[in-house]
Design a protein that fits this description.
Layout (H helix, E strand, L loop, with lengths): L8 H4 L16 H4 L2 H8 L12 E2 L2 E2 L19 H11 L28 H24 L16 H13 L9 H16 L1 H30 L14 H17 L3 H9 L1 H13 L4
Helix pairs in contact: 5-6, 5-7, 7-8, 7-11, 8-9, 8-10, 8-11
The chain binds protoporphyrin IX containing FE.
Length: about 290
């Protein structure tokens, strides 16, 4: 498994950080994690019996009082994808997903069941989404960091299917709009990020593809029922078993992240909020 060492020698210095374990909880803990969960970071984690360690009431008593308890992160034991998922789920609203905790502020954060989509708005959403997927797929093809190449031909790619869908709309007599500001801004951001900040880029990569396979499909179904006479778009069809394709990508993401320091992992998790912001702007087009 290739690491996130950049191809360019010049860039490599950026990622040769010393692997010093973090001694303070991540900055975002208070923002993303409710108090109940933040507290979990404070207790000594896994109560695995360690030979030679005295145990009191099921709790391991550390041999030295100076020894700091190791911090744990929600989902950490299952792999880094579970950590990314945990942070992402908290950023949903309750209307969007059961695990969501965010307050509804924007129209696209309300339950999809109450959306009032328009074909013109949906077309803008599809065009901007295509620009974002074109960009992601170009980034992994070019692989400025060798690890990106792991994410070529995953079967999750959406660019070609969106191309076919836009062609279908054209045949139905719709004019296909040019990409608009939310898509153009996000594509530009992703391109720049991919060259200088691989951990943050991977956060967007995960959120974009996985969000589409979850909430994205719910949206597709709802919009098709409301305004497309139930026409099922290629955007929501995958060749092969979607859950297997997702699992393959989870495995690769977990492997890539195994080589990251705790700081790099936290940096990746912190980017989730931006991913929601950019994608939220694109989703909002459906309601325009
Ligand atoms: C209308 C907007 C949205 C709705 C209705 C929605 C809904 C959902 C639902 C129902 C799930 C599945 C929860 C489960 O596994 O039980 C989910 C998962 C997820 N969503 Fe969203 N979501 C929306 C927007 C977003 C956005 C903007 C992002 C980030 C860009 C995002 C990222 C994710 C991720 C990463 C998962 C986890 C997928 C997995 O574990 O496979 N979602 N969402």
């Amino acid at each position: 498994m290739s690491s996130l060492t950049p191809v360019s020698q010049f860039q490599s210095s950026l990622f040769n950080k010393p692997r010093v374990p973090s001694s303070s909880p991540p900055q975002f803990a208070s923002v993303f994690f409710p108090k109940r969960l933040s507290l979990q970071f404070q207790v000594s984690p896994p109560l695995l019996p360690v030979s030679g360690m005295p145990m009191k009431g099921g709790v391991i008593v550390s041999a030295t009082t100076a020894e700091k308890p190791q911090k744990r992160y929600p989902g950490e034991s299952k792999g880094f994808v579970e950590e990314m998922r945990f942070v992402a789920m908290k950023l949903h609203t309750k209307d969007q997903a059961k695990e969501g905790e965010k307050e509804v502020k924007e129209p696209q954060e309300r339950t999809v069941a109450k959306w009032d989509p328009t074909v013109d708005g949906y077309l803008k959403f599809l065009v901007d989404s295509k620009l974002v997927y074109d960009t992601l797929e170009k980034i992994v093809q070019e692989a400025a960091y060798p690890a990106y190449a792991e994410f070529r031909n995953t079967g999750l790619e959406r660019s070609a299917s969106l191309e076919k869908d836009l062609e279908w709309f054209k045949e139905q007599g719709y004019a296909i709009p040019e990409p608009s500001s939310p898509g153009v801004t996000y594509a530009q951001y992703l391109t720049e990020l991919s060259q200088k900040d691989p951990q943050a880029f991977i956060c967007h990569f995960y959120n974009i593809y996985f969000a589409h396979s979850a909430g994205g499909r719910m949206i597709g179904k709802k919009v098709a029922e409301n305004i497309l006479n139930k026409k099922e778009l290629n955007f929501y069809k995958w060749d092969g078993d979607l859950s297997q394709l997702l699992q393959n990508v989870r495995d690769k993401l977990n492997k890539v992240a195994e080589e990251w320091t705790r700081e790099e992992k936290n940096h990746c998790l912190e980017e989730t909020e931006k991913s929601f912001k950019f994608s939220g702007e694109i989703l909002r087009l459906i309601l325009s």
